[in-house]
Q: What sequence folds into this?
DNA sequence: AAATTTATGTAAATTTTTTTCTTGATGATT
DNA sequence: AATCATCAAGAAAAAAATTTACATAAATTT
């Protein structure tokens, strides 16, 4: 299943002028594009229907209707992927901006995520004796916490630290078979990189999620690269968080699959504790 | 956004025999149904094309192609919602699944977010003397941390706690003008609800992000309702997190706008500390 | 059992989409 | 600068898909 919007963005340069006009309409108003007939779409793009057909073919679709189906399947609602410099001032606009940006980050991530490194990371973690998650500075400490939160449920021993000194000390105690997960948005966390090197020296496997070619990425056995520019608006919360959380989700989910039989029992136990302790509804997610 | 598969399941009884044959094919082989022409679909169901058209109309679609589009839209999500474990076994599919789900959660959130309550929450927080963020249990404690992480940057005094006893004790110390932010996915956190009531009794304003009509939502001055069902797959990470983080983002961003002049200086200070302490690149998000 | 409603197919009409063919533009080569 | 090749894009025709209108069969009600 290929992501048609991603394909379109990639192919954008190779399109002729008329085809780019069509593409822009598709980007701007997916709602319309999905529901329009070839004639309506052609009309709005001020091109002829055959041009639309050719446009679809160029994107690897066999027909216009196949294109529409694929477009409909790419469930992304983000209206515009280019950063609209936000001068959002009322709540409604802020909601739109934040949600669109979050979706757009996830969308970019889709093209960017490096499958082989994710597989390797999940493999290493699934077989780890102990997993340490290191991250500091608000965002990355949150990620580290999230790694722990995800993994302990799967019956793995996991511990998160956001304290540089603790990271360094912990790194000195690792054993063969342990995995250290290093998290950094910028990749410029010198203390983290030092801790990872120490842990590596003592035989731990180092998995990171960070900016490629960065300091932290260097100190790594497996890096899952994430490279997203943040906008300039200092007031705007950083949306890289969504990307990191999604990446952690993906790895955790893969670990869960790999550990399936090992993971079910701890999950069942956690759940039964929560349910008997709190209330009878068991359709809730694990852990509030 | 209407879920055509859900509609179909509900309407099943009201369908004629021929129409049920069509419905079964749609259920059994969505892949086929989404890509087939009306003639192919009619052929496979052994009915005539007009019967298919009538079938689409009965489901509230204006035409066959509208039906296909709606099916395609729900098919993608549906496949993954229905049988996530069987489907997602390799890394690529897991990536698709997680990202699609996250996006679809954000999409739902867009329809669901209650603007007035967000405005009120942001107002209360922007003018708070002190903000406490309470949440427990992995996910919500992460949210509480996030609230703190967002707000202290804006020059607000903020403190997050995930410890029930601490929440209760803290609640006893609040003063007029303080805001307590309560976070819970399920809304069934009895200890949290008690702590909120205590804090309310001592004059704090209570803001929550939680499921509407829930225990926690009751104990509230302003609730931002979030109500998302989680899938059944216990192995699958809960994607409600994306919704909560987005909601927190929105509120924090609004607070930032409301406090603009007050917020710029703390942000500048944090940034200059980080930059001089760490390195020269100042295009990075605040706090790794 | 007759009358009425409902379901469904056939055939025609309409709409949509694709193919074919032509024109005009652009650019490289002599 | 003239010629040729290539490509983009539309017009018109052809094909395909879809819908409408109508007719008949089946089911249900009276």
A:
């Amino acid at each position: 299943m290929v992501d048609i919007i991603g394909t379109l963005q990639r192919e954008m340069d190779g399109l002729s002028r008329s085809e780019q006009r069509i593409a822009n309409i598709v980007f701007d108003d997916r709602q319309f594009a999905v529901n329009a007939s070839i004639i309506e779409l052609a009309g709005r793009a001020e091109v002829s229907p055959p041009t639309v057909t050719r446009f679809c073919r160029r994107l690897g679709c066999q027909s216009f209707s196949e294109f529409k189906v694929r477009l409909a399947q790419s469930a992304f609602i983000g209206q515009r992927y280019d950063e609209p410099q936000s001068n959002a001032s009322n709540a409604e606009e802020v909601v739109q901006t934040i949600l669109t940006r979050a979706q757009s980050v996830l969308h970019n991530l889709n093209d960017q995520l490096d499958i082989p490194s994710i597989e390797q990371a999940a493999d290493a973690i699934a077989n780890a004796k102990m997993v340490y998650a290191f991250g500091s500075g608000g965002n990355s400490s949150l990620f580290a916490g999230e790694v722990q939160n995800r993994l302990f449920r799967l019956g793995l021993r996991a511990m998160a630290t956001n304290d540089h000194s603790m990271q360094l000390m912990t790194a000195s105690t690792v054993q063969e078979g342990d995995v250290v997960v290093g998290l950094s948005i910028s990749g410029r966390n010198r203390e983290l990189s030092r801790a990872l090197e120490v842990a590596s020296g003592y035989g731990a496997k180092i998995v990171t999620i960070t900016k490629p070619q960065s300091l932290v990425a260097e100190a790594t056995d497996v890096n899952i690269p994430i490279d997203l520019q943040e906008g300039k608006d200092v007031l705007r919360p950083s949306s890289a968080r969504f990307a990191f959380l999604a990446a952690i989700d993906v790895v955790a989910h893969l670990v869960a699959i790999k550990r399936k039989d090992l993971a079910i029992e701890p999950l069942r136990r956690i759940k039964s504790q929560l349910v008997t302790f709190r209330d009878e509804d068991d359709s809730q997610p694990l852990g509030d």
